[in-house]
Design brief:
575 residues, mainly alpha, 23 helices, 0% strand
Length: 575
């Protein structure tokens, strides 16, 4: 061995840069106590149950399509194409946003760029990390689809072997495209603003895709009578996808194997070689523009919105209406909310959520409810819709109120060491998140009841239920967020993904279920009396009033009681 070779530095591979994250995950598991490991096991079983339920549902749908005479293969082909297009589009958008974080905004980039690491090694390591972070939906939602297709078609072993080739190639294309687009955008616009804009654009695109799919009415494909003629029906479901499109290649490979045809080498070659080509071209573009883009990404956020005149008016109004102990905390949260685009951009998400929800309610075929009990069935559906509205409210609560305390970050020591009442601190943190949850809950509950034509009584019940659920869910969310804070999380989305977030959803949905159970008898009494055109007895009205009052008081107590315990536990934590 020569001296030069003996003194040469060891060759660095992308796996070396990924190893610290794997070791960190392993050490987190080793350092966890028995209670934490049990919680992880429970949540893992819950995720496995969700996966199994999704697989059973997809197996039922695909099996139903497959049994349709003559048109079964056409229907299953169209369903697979729609699913692959949806996954591909979601992967493209999620990879752009994720690549902005992993390639340009990650905290460890300053260290990695200062080390003697070859740029290709860093690029492929970050490419793999981006793929893992943004493509988990393929494993969660895509794998049950492909397994269900394999079982329904009684696929040979070659189908499952091809999945190990098709899926990585299918995922690699949007990952490489996302990294390339993110690099080009960062060299034109600031990285932080680009990520915030892409997040908002992604929400708007999801809404547009949902509305577009609803306007297409894919349920028509199961009913040939919805078309003018049999020829029109066949032409509609046989509309081909673009030839040079990765979902087309993947569907042709998988369907060809499922239907027992010879292996489609041409689409398989296009998919695999296309993935390698896109990755290579993406590396070539990124290599020449990366350093320049990363330098441009090192800029501070602008505070123009937090210093505007309308912000001063809003803060002054809040100071006049709030208790003295709450004022500095609420004012700080208001200024932070409008200064940080990652927070105020959630308004677009909430607006999109309302549009999608009401559009779905309006798309329900209410003309199918016929007969003397048609109106009663519509009103019962409106009452059951309160459960879905409560689920949406719980999702809003976990995003805003559950993450409110953790949003203080490492600066929590400033609050903890100051003369701040812990209970007042939690109430002040809960107040700002109560506004969007109450607005979303009232709009969904009242507007959906009106769209379903359920009458004034159920509209009043829905509005009151949303009001008291907002109080109960907000208190539980803030309390549990204070009991299990995560001050190291760099965004609110990570706070909600832990075991405590799942535990909150369990408690929240339990509260929604209890409220609906208490309100079921009063609604039943009213529906029965209205359908039979008979007056309600005094005793039934008294029982109904008592049950409604119990539901309201239960929501208020659920929101009030945990606050003091959560405040004591939060203040007992060390700095």
């Amino acid at each position: 061995m020569s001296v030069a070779s003996a003194g040469a530095p060891p060759r660095i591979l992308p796996g070396y840069l990924l190893r610290p994250r794997l070791l960190g995950a392993r050490n987190t598991w080793r350092a966890a106590d028995t209670r934490t490991r049990a919680a992880y096991a429970v949540f893992g079983l819950m995720g496995l149950a969700f996966w199994a339920g999704l697989f059973w549902f997809l197996h039922f749908i695909i099996g139903g399509f497959h049994t349709v005479e003559v048109f079964g293969p056409l229907l299953t082909r169209k369903l697979l194409e729609i699913l692959l297009i949806s996954l591909f589009m979601m992967l493209c958008f999620s990879n752009v946003v994720t690549a902005l974080s992993t390639f340009f905004l990650s905290d460890d980039l300053e260290l990695l760029l200062a080390l003697p690491i070859p740029r290709p090694v860093l690029h492929y390591a970050r490419l793999a990390e981006t793929a893992v972070q943004s493509s988990w939906m393929m494993a969660m939602f895509g794998l049950p689809v492909f397994l269900a297709y394999g079982i329904v078609y009684q696929a040979p072993w070659t189908y499952y072997a091809l999945l190990a080739v098709v899926m990585p190639a299918f995922v690699a294309i949007p990952v490489a495209l996302g990294v390339t687009v993110a690099t080009l955008l960062v060299n034109i616009f600031p990285a932080r603003r680009t990520r915030e804009f892409m997040a908002m654009a992604g929400v708007l695109v999801v809404v547009a895709v949902f509305v577009f799919l609803r306007l297409l009415r894919p349920e028509r494909f199961t009913d040939a009578r919805a078309f003018e003629s049999l020829a029109a029906y066949v032409a509609e479901i046989q509309t081909p996808m673009p030839a040079l499109f990765p979902p087309t290649w993947a569907s042709e490979v998988l369907l060809g194997t499922l239907q027992g045809r010879d292996l489609p080498w041409l689409p398989l070659g296009l998919l695999v070689l296309g993935a390698l080509a896109v990755v290579a071209v993406g590396h070539w573009i990124t290599a020449s523009l990366y350093i320049q883009g990363w330098s441009k990404s090192q800029e501070a956020r602008s505070a123009r919105g937090a210093q505007s005149a309308w912000m001063g008016a809003l803060v002054s109004g809040a100071q006049r209406l709030l208790p003295v102990a709450w004022r500095p905390i609420v004012v700080k949260d208001i200024r932070t909310f409008f200064r940080d685009p990652s927070q105020w951009s959630q308004v677009f998400l909430l607006g999109s959520l309302i549009v999608i929800y009401l559009f779905s309610i309006n798309a329900i075929p209410m003309d199918q409810f016929r007969g003397p009990w048609a109106l009663a069935l519509r009103r019962a559906l409106a009452f059951l819709n309160l459960g879905m509205a409560g689920f949406v409210m719980a999702g809003v609560a976990i995003r805003f109120q559950f993450a409110a305390v953790s949003g203080e970050g490492r600066a929590f020591w400033v609050v903890r060491s100051g003369p701040v009442d812990p209970v007042a601190f939690l109430w002040a943190k809960s107040l700002l998140g109560l506004v969007p949850m109450l607005v979303v809950g009232e709009i969904l509950a009242v507007a959906s009841t009106i769209l379903l034509g359920a009458g004034a009584y159920l509209t009043i019940v829905s509005g009151g239920t949303a009001l008291f659920l907002a109080i109960g869910l907000g208190g539980i969310a803030t309390s549990m967020g204070a009991m299990y804070p995560n001050f190291k999380a760099d965004n609110a989305a990570k706070v909600a993904t832990g075991p405590a977030g799942v535990m909150f959803m369990v408690f929240a949905l339990s509260l929604v279920g209890c409220v609906l159970a208490l309100e079921a008898y009063p609604v039943y009494v009213w529906l029965r009396a209205d359908a039979l055109e008979q007056p309600v007895s005094t005793g039934a009205w008294a029982i109904s009033g008592a049950l409604l009052a119990t539901a309201a008081v239960g929501c208020v107590l659920a929101g009030l009681l945990p606050m003091r315990r959560a405040a004591r536990q939060l203040w007992s934590k060390g700095l």
